[in-house]
Amino acid sequence: MKSANTIRLGLAGTGRIGAAHAETLKNLTGVDSVLVADADPERARATATKLGVDFAQDIDELLAADLTGLVIATATDSHPELITRAVDLGIPVFCEKPVAADITGTLAVIDHIASSTVPVQIGFQRRFDAGYRAARSAIATGELGWLHTVRATTLDPEPPPADYIPRSGGIFRDCGVHDFDIIRWVTGREVTEVYALGANRGDDFFTAANDVDTALVSLTLDDNTLATVSLTRYNGAGYDVRLEALGSKSNAIVGLDDRAPLHSVEPNYPPSPFPAYPGFMDRFRNAYTAELVAFLDVATGRLENPCSPLDALEAFYIAEACELSRAERRPVPVAEVRR
Question: Is residue 258 one of the residues assigned to a domain?
Answer without folding.
Answer: yes
